[in-house]
Amino acid sequence: MATHQEILTEALRSALGDKITNVQALFGELTVTVKADDICAVSRVLQDDSALKFDTLMDLCGIDYSAYGDELAVKHNLRNKRFAVIYHLLSVTNNQRLRVRVLAEDDELPAVDSVTEIWPVANWFEREAFDLYGIVFTGHPDLRRILTDYGFIGNPFRKDFPMTGYVEMRYDAEQKRVVYQPVSIEPREITPLVIREEHYGDCES
């Protein structure tokens, strides 16, 4: 007898065909990978198809795979693509979940079509991914930062973003306003020094 996961996989392949580039089953949930150009068409099918009915977008987030291990990158077919958008979907009708992964084609200017017309709740999720990862959502009605301030430089969740940031801000009493200035924190090693006695922990013979 087929499991729920196997039934869902078959329904996905039947509805989406070659728009699915990869299917991964992990921790009792499915992750399907689709091309960036197909995300809107795929999303409409996932929402409207009678066998799927993924009517709810629970979450959307960005990912920076630049520090992903080589072995994992090969295993999950993620080589040569740095940024991705992950969609967490729920079908209330069928009581099942699905994860959709889209890899941005351009590492320098990662861009994925907005799904706000399909799932309006994506609005703030996409703004968050834009703010933190610099992923551009084409067609978004109001794409601007949502967590960092307007003068913020860079995207803080990128793996190459410095821990101290690029600038710091403070209130200047003389100017009576907030000012930006170069970071005054000096980089330092915060790994604790661990000293062990020779043969510490060795089992006695």
Concise account of the structure shown:
The chain has helices at residues 4-16, 39-48, 70-75, 122-133; strands at 20-26, 29-35, 56-64, 83-91, 96-103, 111-113, 136-138, 167-172, 177-182. The chain is α/β, with parallel strands linked by helices. The strands form three sheets. It has a five-stranded mixed β-sheet. Strands 6-7 form a two-stranded parallel ribbon. The protein has a two-stranded antiparallel ribbon with strand order 8-9.
Helix-strand layout with pairing:
Elements: H1 4-16, E1 20-26, E2 29-35, H2 39-48, E3 56-64, H3 70-75, E4 83-91, E5 96-103, E6 111-113, H4 122-133, E7 136-138, E8 167-172, E9 177-182
Parallel strand pairs: 2-5, 6-7
Antiparallel strand pairs: 1-2, 3-4, 4-5, 8-9
CATH architecture of the domain at 4-146: 2-Layer Sandwich
**pLDDT average, as an integer?**
87
Task: Output the radius of gyration.
Answer: 22 Å
Structural class: alpha/beta
Helicity range: 10-25%
CATH superfamily of the domain at 4-146, please? NADH:ubiquinone oxidoreductase Nqo5 subunit
Percent of residues in beta strands: 25-35%
Number of helical runs? Answer: 4
Question: Which series of helices and strands comes N to C?
Answer: HEEHEHEEEHEEE
**Largest beta-sheet details:** 5 strands, mixed
Kindly report how far apart the N and C termini lie.
Answer: 54 Å
* CATH fold annotation of the domain at 4-146: Beta Polymerase, domain 2
Oligomer category: single chain
Strand order of the largest sheet: 1-2-5-4-3
Top CATH class of the domain at 4-146: Alpha Beta
Q: Care to count the β-strands?
A: 9
Low-pLDDT segments: none
